[in-house]
Structures are given as structure tokens and as C-alpha cells.
Design brief:
single chain; about 150 residues; mainly alpha
Length: about 150
Amino acid sequence: MTATDPALTALTQGWCALSLLHGRIEARIERALQSAHGLSVREYSLLDVLSRQHDGEGGHLQMKQAADAVVLSQSATTRLVTRLEDRGLLSRYLCPTDRRGIYTDVSEAGLQLLAEARPTNDAALREALDEAAKNPELAPLVRAVESLNAPA
């Protein structure tokens, strides 16, 4: 493939459109979460991912799993966890069977804030998708996102 290959150009345009859609959605959600709940998108995402790990006592993720889930490096995730831990929204503890493993778990305060922030996140996501759907370049991507995991 050369730089002027139509297939490569189409891929690049598709990637740019996807990146644009992601950026618009993330910016809309960031503004909404920050203003209403003092949370960043990454903080919300980590709390959300961790909250879904609960299946009774001991629901948790190792730090590497948390980093993978929120698409951050381990060092950035550690800083994020530290900020949330300082706010009392989550905790870290050593794995009882492998002292090298560090787990992260959402606190009751974190679960409460997440419950309060979830409607804000969902509304901002819906608004961002509705706005993007008006753009002919982004509309197919919006339809694709909306079709994922849609009830039959």
C-alpha cells in the first residue's frame, strides 16, 4: 500500500472519525461529571469498572487488571487510585494468597458517588451521541455504538 492508496485513505478517514466521536463524547461527559460530581471521566470509569466486580464479599481487581480496564498505564492507574483513595472512594489491599498482588475495591462512599453520577454520565453520553448523529460523517459510527449490546 502506498500513502495515496484509496484503502489506506479510507482507513485513515474512518479512524479520524472514530477518534473525533470519542473525543466529543469524552469531553461532554467530562464536563458533566466534573461540574455535577467533581469526578473525571477516568475516575468515574474506574469506579464503575470496580463496582461491577462485586459478587458478594471480596469483589476486587488487581491493579494491572484495573489499568487494562480503564486503558491507562499502571503508573497512571496507581496515581488515579491514590487520588480516589485519598477521597475515601476506594481502597487498596494486599492479596491474601499472593503478597505481591495489590487489589483495589470501591468503598461505600465510592458506590454512593457512582450511583449519583451514573445518571449524569448516561445523560451526557446520550446528548453527545444525539449531537454526533447530526454529523453525516459520524452518524454511521453512532448507529454502530447504539447497536452494540442492544436488546433484541
